[in-house]
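Attaching the record inline, Q. Sequence:
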Amino acid sequence: MSISFELPVAVEEQLRRDHADLDVVAKEAALVELYRQGRISQHQLGLSLDKSRCEVEELLKRHNVTEDLYTAEQVAEQITILRRLLISQTNVDLTP
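Structure, as predicted:
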């Protein structure tokens, strides 16, 4: 699929000076924004940009996309759940 849009000449010239491949920059930006909005998955983002999972994670960091990261409270909740599960499976108390 091909998408194009017009820019004022001066803006295009400036952007092309700053970015070797403006088409790639625009494609990445559009797809990252769709991911940020929840319209495509991280897997779809990687497929669309021909990037591995690690490369996609690095790209998202460069674009300051962190919505899918756990909060401290969520991590603590997951630890509590895992401890309870482990205790119920092994009858070992792992309370700190």
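The chain has two domains: 1-65, 69-96. The chain has a mean pLDDT of 87.

More tomorrow.
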